[in-house]
Amino acid sequence: VNIGTAFHPLSYTLSCKALPETIELIQDFEMPTVCTSIRVSRDGQFILAAGTYKPRVRCYDTYQLSLKFERCLESDVVTFDILSEDYSKLVFLHIDRYVEFHSQHGHYYKTRIPKFGRDFSYHYPSCDLYFVGASSEVFRLNLEQGRFLNSLQTDAAEINVCDINPVHQLFAAGTLEGRVDCWDPRVRSRVAVLDCALSSITDGTEVEGLPSVSALKFNGSLGMAVGTSTGQVLVYDLRSSRPLLVKDHYYGLPIKSLHFHDQLDLVLSADSKIIKMWNKDNGKVFSSIEPQANINDVCLYPGSGMLFTANEDPKMNTFYIPALGPAPRWCSFLDNLTEELEENPESTIYDDYKFVTRKDLENLGLTHLIGSPLLRAYMHGFFMDIRLYHKVKTMANPFAYEEYRKDRIRQKIEESRTQRVQLKKLPKVNKELAMKLMEESELPTRKKKKKGNVDNLLSDDRFKVMFENPDYQVDERSEEFRLLNPIVSKVGEKRRQKLSQLVQQEEQQDEEEEEVEGRGSSEEEESSDDDDKSWVEEVREQRRLIRAEERENRQQEPQRHSQPRFYQIKAGEEFRSFGDVARKQKMQKTSLEERLQREESSGRLNLNDTAVGSKQLTFTLKKVSMNYPELSCFVIFTGCLLVTAAGQMIMSMQL
Asked: Is 146's pLDDT higher than 70?
């Protein structure tokens, strides 16, 4: 039960689904499926409700704020009434023409009426029950004698509702033809007829079909309210055949319940959609309540501002309006809560304002309004009237509604596509990676255990940007990717083929808007040894290709002949000509043995003694036979052994 303000400024509502602050007045105040009718005992201690499914009646004790008992019934209840001060005498009218009596201990007696009943009333002075229904007769059952009495014969084809005046015991029955027949129980004769169908049609009233009487309620000795099936409420003085006031609900729904509030001269009328409270003299609306579920019945707690509703919903709503009266004695703490709400009202000064920043004002072209009464400075922005904001927004972007409409149409089309045979949707970015993840997710459980539990990144919100933002596109031509992902196996080739097939299927679906069934992915397994061998081979191949591409890039670089080339001569180096440089480069390409032979023939090879005692040697190693027959080569070493004056020995060796 939630506490919140109702539609009247001084009224507060305890509703089941209205506001977040909840107070559970009565524990388990609900039905399994639907509640059809609800009543309060005359002593105010017990609340009884009938509902389904299965058909049952529940009694709640307000002093204990909990369920007292529950009794299941054999059929659904059309309506019921409490004949005693408490729950000790109950009468139920069932949908299968049975009338069931319950006492304090439970089921007491059950009988049957000749026709299907729709309503009944109890005449206390004579202990007679008057039943009306799908018949022109009013059946009378005397509870003192325990037998049926002579029926009252009417001119109506069917009778919908009935009521008995608590002051002078006048019996009234509302008919299907829109008339109200009034009977005097003392003489069992009809004393008056009111044509409510004709009186309910006023200027501007639009009705479909003949209005019939759907609700009836007496107020005092002379007042009466009649509700029609077309949504009008007629207030009568029994001394006149013309209504004093006709109130229209403007919903075209049958009036289901009528109650009078004597302290404020109000009428509480309810249809299946709304409960309206209005003055019975001038029809001025006092308040209105519109629950989320359809209304079946309304019960006003006597002497208070609380009312209960039976809805087409498991929850039975409870509304408390302090302006109608105080809270009942068993929940008097509600008055304290409402007083606190009145003392600390919530600030709603900016309900009709829109908060905008300075950047928003620049986009809307309203910077010239800064400092005017149209903008109210607040924190890092301004408050402006919501109507002005919508008007300027429409002028600044007149096609906003069209864009919104197109987006909604696109969303509806996507929702309808979900009902079709689903294809594998690939993202726009990193399609091959998405294809690989899809295949891994489709692997059987046994193979998933071998490869490890790999989560599907496509369904993870943390990685969705990787498949949406083009900046995260994997560049397969880069050197890093080629070295880290060297394996281009048969699975990869087939994955590319399958990727192209899926892309073609998506394009065909967008063009033709037809249902296409996706093909299952084929899987090929490779052993771990084959993967390792292929990985080594592919790493070598990729390195070889990378070096080849680097050489080609160097060769294809344009030579800038128009600019001179400068060479730096180091200190101690003698520059002869560019021919010497070419000769040195040519000598570096020859083998070491050839260079030594040329130096010996030219007389350049010699031993030099220096002052510091250094020696220069030249040595040659012959052919060496290795242990591996497939590896044989000539290894020639030349080296220089230099001993410095400090006694350090430096050996340089070249292979």
From this structure: yes
